[in-house]
Design brief:
Elements (H helix, E strand, L loop, with lengths): L6 H18 L6 E3 L5 E6 L6 H16 L4 E7 L19 E7 L3 E4 L14 E9 L2 E8 L1
Antiparallel strand pairs: 1-2, 2-7, 3-4, 4-5, 6-7
Helix pairs in contact: 1-2
Amino acid sequence: MKDYSDPRMHTAEHLLNRAMVRLFGCGRAFSSHIEKKKSKCDYRFSRPLTAEETAELERLVNGVIAANLPVREAFYSREEAAALDLARLPEGAAGDRLRVILIGDYDACPCIGQHAGATGELGGFRIVSSSFEDGVLRVRFKLA
């Protein structure tokens, strides 16, 4: 299992990824750096975010946090997991069984990291900044 300095921040990454997929139809982050104080995710994207879109992302993620959804793990065969977003398997995801993190009915994603027990443990989510260059949207965020 991958050890994160703050499992809450890693859980927030899952929430942001699903929000990006839902709002913009893009894939999950292709690169991320998760730290306790501030984290970042990189997405293949065609333009910068507007202030309104940034506010909508924050609203969606904070809504899921406020819902206090349970975060649990389940193990699936690769065939069973085929219905999930397997575009980016985590490093170390070997073998016939995949560990999938389920966040209520909001998100399901293969992952080897540590997570909060429920979304309510995250507190508040805030996008600190975003930038766009050469087809890559970088979103920097932190928790309150």
